[in-house]
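Forwarding the complex inputs:
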Amino acid sequence: MPSPLPPGELDDGALARRVAAARGAPDSAAEAELYRRLAPRVRLYGLRHLRDRAAAADLVQQVLLMTLERLRAGEVREPERIASFVLGACRMTVMEMRRGQRRREEILELHADKEPVFETPEPLALDPDRLAGCLERLSERERSVVVMSFFADKAADEVGAELALSAGNVRVIRHRALGRLRDCMGADG
Amino acid sequence: MADHPDFEKLAAYWLGDLPAAEGEKVEEHFFACERCAAWLQWLAGLSDGVRATVRAGRVGLFVSKRFVEALVQAGLRLREYNLEPNTGVNCTIGAGDDAVLSHMRAQLAGAKRVDVLRRVTVGGAAHAEERVADVPFDPTVGELLFIPAAAELKALPSHVLQVRLLAVDEAGERPLGEYTFRHSAS
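Prediction (whole assembly, two chains):
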C-alpha cells in the first residue's frame, strides 16, 4: 500500500514504491519529487566521471527517465533500494558513453517526446566575492595547491608532480587549506 | 546514516585521488546519504568557483607550467614576461588580457624554501617591502611562475614593482635574483 504522506515527507524508497504502485495513472507528484531528489547525486556522479557539465546533465536525464520508466513498468525488483538501482544505471551509462556505444544525441532521443519535463535543481554556487576573499587569505602554498587541484579537478600526485611535492604532502596542504576555506566560507556539516 | 566518509575522503573522491574500490564505496554511500551528497555538491561548487575566480583574475598565484597550459587550453589569454635574474622589464596588462604571467628565472636547484620580497613604488613613493614566505616552486624548472590578480592589476596606476627572491634554509638566506617590473597602466 503506497504511503498517503505528501511526497516531500517520504524517503527515496517510499517515493519509489509509490511511483511503482501507480502503474496505470502515473503519480506525477511522487515522480517529480524523486527526480528532484536524485538528480543532484546523478549529476555529481556524471561530473566526477565525465568532467563535463553538458554530459553530466545528459546523464541525469537518461538515468532518471529510464528509472521512472522501469518503476512504472514494475521492472525494479527492490524499489526501496532505488538509490542503489540508480547508481548501477549511472555506472552502466557512463561506461557506454566512454566506449562510444551511444552518442549523446541517441541517449537523449531514447526518451524524447514521451516524458514530462522534470525540474532539475540548480547546482550549488558558492558566493564568488566570499570565495575570492577566502582564497586570498590562504598561504601562497595552500592557495596554489587548492587552485591547481580544483581548477582542473586534479589528484594529489598530479599536483605534486607539478610542484615537486609528494602526493602525501599535497594531501596534507590540501586538507589544511580546505578546512580553512570551509571555515571562511561558513560551510558547516 | 552511520559511517559517513570524512570530508578529506570526499575531497579525495572528487579529485580522483582514491583507488577505484574505495571510490565505489564512497559512491554507494553518497547515493543513499543526503548529507554526504551535500558536501560533494559543495566540493563541485568549489571547483566551479575556483575556475570562475581564476577566469575573472581575482586571485594571484604561483603556478606550474602545466597549470599555465591548462589556462591556455581553457581559452585564457595570457601576456607573458620573461626575466633573467637582476633585470627589469616594461610591462602592462591590456583590456584583452585575462592574465599576466611572469617567468622569473633563477637558480632554484637545491633550494628548500623560496621567499619573495615585493616593494611597490607609485609616483616616486615607495611602499613598505612585503615578504611572502614559502612560495611553491619546482626546483627542476629554473624559474618561478607568478600570475598576479589581473582584476587588481588592471585597476592599479602606473608603478614599479621590485621583486627579490631568496632561498631560505638552516644556513640562512641566499639571494636568487632581483626583478623589476615597470608597469604602465593601460
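Chain A has nine helices and no strands.
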